[in-house]
Amino acid sequence: SEELAVRDDRRFRQGLRLSRLPHHKTLDEYDFSFQPDLEPRKVKDLATLSFVDGKANAALLGPPGVGKTHIAVALAVAACRAGYSIYFTSLDDMVRNLKAAETAGRLTNKLGTYLRPSVLVVDEVGYQPLERAEANLVFQVISKRYEKGSIILTSNKTFSEWGQVFGDEVLATAILDRLLHHCEVISINGPSYRLKNRLKAIERENDVA
Ligand code: ADP
Ligand code: MG
């Protein structure tokens, strides 16, 4: 069993390397008391990974700094530890890579990067509006993963604003239709943790002065 544990640990660390996660923060490092409107239960339910087992999705919505990426990464790390393959990308990077691949005649090959992993983390949906051709590439990823593999996404936009993000109401509706059919949605509407630390630091500097 010791040998098994060593092998599991090696597979976990190799999985993390391949995942391109920006960091490896966990839920233990997330201070729920800083977001009193967020029910810890909802997040901890997601951490059981039954949605990953069911090839369903999870969406984390809210303004900047509330910990959307932190929680998405923590879920991905947990899934990686459980043996699932993970790939992390921002929406903009994914679109840029798919566009370049399409131009080079290698779209099918590149799509595989986003279709193969058990869990695809798509960070920062909605920061940049997309053109129609770009939104179409996103639709291909979402529809091909539908009921085949999980997506964890983060967005600063509500779903009703996705029409503007994807530049086309019909396409946005088609994307949301697949995405939300099996999806746990967590909205975090509270203060920015980044700003909290900054404000404290500024106050300290002023105290010293
Ligand atoms: P978002 O993706 O919502 O903009 P992030 O997840 O990037 O926010 O969080 C910004 C920073 O603040 C990160 O370093 C993250 O680990 C930290 N952070 C955010 N919320 C919390 C929290 N409630 N407890 C601990 N750290 C947090
Ligand atoms: Mg983020």
Q: How does this structure look, described?
A:
54% of the residues lie in helices and 13% in strands. The chain has 10 helices and 5 strands. A 5-stranded parallel beta sheet has the order 2-3-4-1-5, with helices on both faces. The longest helix is centred in the first third of the chain and has 18 residues, at 2-19. The termini are far apart. Bound molecules: adenosine-5'-diphosphate (ADP) and magnesium ion. Adenosine-5'-diphosphate (ADP) binds next to helix 4 and helix 10.
Number of helices: 10
The molecules bound to the chains, other than polymers, are: adenosine-5'-diphosphate, magnesium ion
Radius of gyration: 18 Å
Oligomer: single chain
Strand content: 5-15%
Defining key terms:
209 residues; 5-stranded parallel β-sheet; 54% helix; binds adenosine-5'-diphosphate; binds magnesium ion
Question: How are the secondary structure elements laid out?
Answer:
Elements: H1 2-19, H2 40-46, H3 50-53, E1 57-61, H4 68-81, E2 86-90, H5 91-103, H6 107-115, E3 119-125, H7 132-145, E4 150-155, H8 162-165, H9 169-181, E5 183-187, H10 193-208
Parallel strand pairs: 1-4, 1-5, 2-3, 3-4
Helix pairs in contact: 5-6, 5-7, 7-9
The chain binds adenosine-5'-diphosphate and magnesium ion (MG).
Quick take:
With 209 residues, the chain is an alpha/beta fold. It has ten helices and five strands; from the N terminus they run αααβαβααβαβααβα.
